[in-house]
Please model this.
Amino acid sequence: MTEWDVRKLHILRTLRERETVTATAEALRMTPSAVSQQLTNLARQLGVPLLQARGRRVRLTDAARLVLRHAEAVFEQLERAEAELAAYVQGDVGEVRVGAFSTAVPALVVPAVTALRATHPGVEVRVREAEAQEAYELLAAGEVDLALSLAAQAPSAADPRFTAVPLLADPLDVALPHGHPLARAEGLRLADLAAEPWIFGGSGPWSDITRGACEAAGFSPVQGHSAAGWTAILAMVEAGMGVALVPRMAAERRDGVVMREPVADRPVRHVVAAVRKGAGEGAAVGRVVAALRAVAAAARGGPQDPSAAG
Model:
């Protein structure tokens, strides 16, 4: 196959525009002899004459014009590639794979993706729902580029594999049945519910978070029922089967459930984003992290305290 040298084709193209070897050399910051040598080598590589002498000047042969006609398509494609590469470097294009736990998907990831579509439509985000610990396993295995998880499940800050970015301190509210005696009590504290049956998972991060919050309030929760999904947990609360701590990001409106913010204890769960060390320097990943941080910063508000409604 004939060898096409883009650098030499560019010299030939410049000669067509500048018309003389001297002007071409000046435009390309080369010596005239170097221009002549490069074009001679190109003619040898292509196997056709490219120049004809005309007095002190040279003119392009018909073969040279044919070569340049096809070369224009090459130059056009290279320009597109250069522009796309520049966009990639600047973070305007690229694919970012995100692994996130279930409640973070609608609360953080979806709004971030929506915002990016408006500002950086070339950044494509692929979402994979994963439990908190699994998200880190996927990140370590290179199956996702960014993991959203809970700080309680995050590897040690000394772990050389990851860089963690704090996103949000998600408040934990108490879910009570609508008819519960404390549903509208003023100044509700977690300790006021020490004798209640609590609903939370038998193991995993939410079990640890619930037990930790209750123990910080001075009691060990009695597990009345075990459930991992928020729909199931809130359905049992609504039925009067117990109470539960629910992250504000996961709260669903239910007529039979009252959400209260403890006035003194104010437990939270910390949401973090993590990337592999060095990967955060990738511009597209940086765009996604910035969008997530913007969504997290905008997250405000909470359940209304029924005691204030009169």
User: Anything to note?
Assistant: Residues 62-89 form the longest helix (28 residues). The chain is about 40% helix and 20% strand. The mean pLDDT is 84.
